[in-house]
Specification:
- InterPro entries: Deacylase_DTD3, DNase_TatD-rel_CS, Metal_Hydrolase, TatD-like, TatD/YcfH-like.
- One of its GO terms (cellular component) is cytosol.
- With 261 residues, the chain is of the alpha/beta class.
- Helix content is 43%, strand content 16%.
- It is built from nine helices and eight strands.
- It has an eight-stranded parallel sheet with strand order 1-2-3-4-5-6-7-8.
- Helix 2 links the parallel strand 2 and strand 3.
- It starts with a strand and ends with a helix.
């Protein structure tokens, strides 16, 4: 059985003392590919080094919406250059809108659209972070589709929306990725969303080191090996086997990000 963790942050300091051991555990758990996300440009070189160190890791480059104030032409140029020059870059992100922790709405929207343009110019998918901003994000994507005449390719990562919001992004052609939050007992709307996504649009992730899933919740860090617990819970919610979820999510990740096994 093969699993793909489509969203990790292994560049964090708390992974550095034992990253080889962390890798041994993800390999032992059947994790065959990983997509390393990026929050802001200062991470670029570290993430690139990790991807070069481990052949199963691909990565994305982008600017997180909570770092939108850091956007300038230099940042745009860095994203465009690295994404266009390194074959291990498979997406732009993580990017998007977050109105839960910041209220610079117009700035976030501008940075989001600028990164959509970069992704389009390179024919790369996007990894979208969306918190308390589903309606506004949907409007941007609808406008983009109207102006460009085509859909943006990508994934709603660590998805926490309700079924109505989930359907919005499915209708726009997006994949929906579930993290450890889907294992939380009281995450009822996430449970409902995980049950309704069609098998060909479903992805799984850890978003490590954050959001460790049950039964590892409460540990000081999450890690890629734990994506198996996400897959197991999604299987339970959907009435499917673990093997079926592993197969469909792996196939979907390969299709979206152009990965090979």
């Amino acid at each position: 059985m093969q699993l793909i963790d489509t969203h990790v942050h292994l560049n964090f300091d708390l992974f550095q003392p034992d990253l080889e051991d962390v890798r041994s555990r993800w390999l032992s758990s059947g994790v065959v590919r990983l997509v390393h996300s990026c929050v802001e440009p200062s991470e670029f070189s570290t993430i690139q080094a990790i991807a070069n160190r481990f052949p199963e890791i691909s990565f994305a480059v982008g600017l997180h919406p909570l770092d939108a104030h850091k956007w300038d032409q230099e940042t745009a140029d860095k994203i465009l250059h690295l994404a266009g020059s390194d074959p291990k870059v498979v997406a732009i992100g993580e990017m998007g809108l977050d109105f839960h922790k910041a209220d610079n709405i117009q700035q976030q929207m501008m940075v989001f659209e600028a990164q959509l343009a970069i992704a389009e110019s390179l024919d790369l998918p996007v990894i979208i972070h969306c918190r308390d901003a589903a309606r506004e994000l949907r409007e941007v994507l609808q406008k983009w589709r109207l102006l460009k005449g085509e859909r943006v390719r990508g994934v709603m990562h660590c998805w926490g929306g309700d079924p109505e919001e989930t359907q919005w992004f499915l209708d726009l052609g997006f994949y929906i990725s579930f993290s450890g939050t889907v294992t939380f007992k009281n995450a009822k709307q996430i449970h409902s969303s995980a049950a309704m996504v069609s098998s060909d649009r479903l992805l799984i992730e850890t978003d490590c080191p954050f959001l460790a899933p049950v039964p590892k919740r409460g540990e000081r860090r999450n890690e890629p090996a734990y994506v198996r617990y996400v897959a197991e819970q999604v299987a339970r919610l959907r009435g499917e086997t673990l093997e079926a979820i592993a197969s469909s999510t792996t196939e979907n990740a390969c299709k979206l990000f152009g990965l090979t096994l």
